[in-house]
Amino acid sequence: MRRYDRVLVISPHADDEVLGCGGLLAAQSAAGADVHILYLAVDGMHHYGLDGATTYEQRLDEIESVRETLGFTYEIAYGDRDLTERLDTLPRRELVDLFERALNERRPDLLLVPSFADYDQDHRAVFDAAFAAARPIAPQFGKWLVPNVFMYEMSKIQWASEPMPRHTVYCDITRFIETKLVALRGYKSQYRPSPHIRSEESVTALATLRGAEIGVPHAEAFGVLREVL
Length: 229
Description:
- It is built from six helices and nine strands, in the order βαβββαβαβαββααβ.
- The protein has helices at residues 16-30, 56-70, 92-106, 121-133, 177-186, 200-212, and strands at 6-11, 34-42, 45-46, 53-54, 73-79, 110-114, 148-152, 169-172, 219-227.
- The strands form two sheets. Strands 5-2-1-6-7-9-8 form a seven-stranded mixed β-sheet, sandwiched between helices. A two-stranded antiparallel sheet has the order 3-4.
């Protein structure tokens, strides 16, 4: 597996990074990479499948638990602002500026963003702004050009109204599938039993399918927006 020096994940909500690339993050962290998560909206709210509401403090505790499992640093752009499922109401310019600052400050050699094929309006808004922020401008003009930009996937994007992106990069996560599942369980307010898309069975099934595509037990797959060899 290729080790990156600095990995930046843009995660619309606290759990997307685990669902989309938790195995890769665990592998990169174990290999010594600097892994950083930029969470967008983290709120207390009522979730489908739970009897009561989750508090903001509970969500922060969950992030801390997952951080210890996967080994990353993080920041929250919009904490306790009631913006979950409302990120599309923010001006795109605001999000682009936010992401450009993160890229220039963190200078990642791998940027991971949600897929454009996601039906979730938050994910689409984040993808559009991240794609604009990562546009190719040479470093001598004062902007960091991320050499590798990948889109992560999760099982829910199988519900799509347009052609799915073709996955052309894979990461063997066989050694880290259990770490990914431990992290998934760390998000107690998001974790659900089967047949929910955020169940262990669903997450494992997608990893098994992607693994079969490259001849290993478990893998994560990514769409490539840019890769500099």
